[in-house]
Every structure is written in structure tokens, then in C-alpha cells.
Amino acid sequence: xxxxxxxxxxxxxxxxxxxxxxxxxxxxxxxxxxxxxxxxxxxxxxxxxxxxxxxxxxxxxxxxxxxxxxxxxxxxxxxxxxxxxxxxxxxxxxxxxxxxxxxxxxxxxxxxxxxxxxxxxxxxxxxxxxxxxxxxxxxxxxxxxxxxxxxxxxxxxxxxxxxxxxxxxxxxxx
Length: 174
What we know:
Layout: H1 24-45, H2 53-63, E1 66-67, H3 68-75, H4 79-91, E2 95-100, E3 103-111, H5 113-116, H6 119-134, H7 139-160
Antiparallel strand pairs: 1-3, 2-3
Helix pairs in contact: 1-6
């Protein structure tokens, strides 16, 4: 490589790309979210999960058996992405899919015993990442950050087409 070849080695957090000048907070939020996902990915690897799969398991732990279409909607992901995730997780023995007895065209998804056994590890991974993420912040600062991020999330829910923790129309209840 000659000294005249273009190189892009600036770290993701700074300096901020010129195209993001009108969105300093949005750029920083995207950078932090990326780092958070990487940190969670490292922790989940020890449990045999990939990032995002723990969110699916959390939904199944909280909601029990749920239609695959409702799971797709509540996770806010593309149906093909959820289908691929479910295939991997089914192969690992974490979830089971079966026809819905109320509507044989629908598919029910539920955590297996092996999937239920992941809960303590996932909770530990989230707790560990939480502590690492918030290191150096006083309790009041942690509370204020959670409050502010909650407000940001509320502002963005309309952008994402979401209403509550279990997706559109669920009213926050699974």
C-alpha cells in the first residue's frame, strides 16, 4: 500500500463522520448500541447463543407458548430472520415448534427444558453487561440515564411501529 492510498481507520465513535454532524446523539447512540451488542455477544457465546436469541428466549420465558407470527411481531424482526433463528435454536434443543391446536395453520413456539435452563445464564450475562456498561456512574446517574433512555425510546417507538413490550396491539401484556 502506497502512502497515497485512501485509508479509513478512524474509530467509530470519533471523529464523527461529517454526514452525521446533524445527528450527534443519534451517531453516539448507534455506536454505543453496536458496542453493547458486541459485549453481549461475547457473553452469550459461552451459553451457546447468538445476539438476539436471548431476547427471543426472554419473550418465551415471559409469555410461554406463543404463535410464531406473534413472536415475529413482538420482536420487530423480519419473518425470515425469526424463522432462521428458530431453526438454529430448535436444532440446539432450546425451542420446540408445533401446530397450534386452535388453528392448525399456525405454529406455536415454546421453550424446551433445555431452553428454560438457559435463563440463569442469560440473566447473569445481562447483569454482568449492565455492571460493565454503567461502571463509574453513581446510582443517581444510572437512574437518570435509564430515565433519559426511556424517553428516547418512547420518542422512537412510533418510528419502529411499536406500542408496548410485547408488540403492537398487545398493550404490554403477552
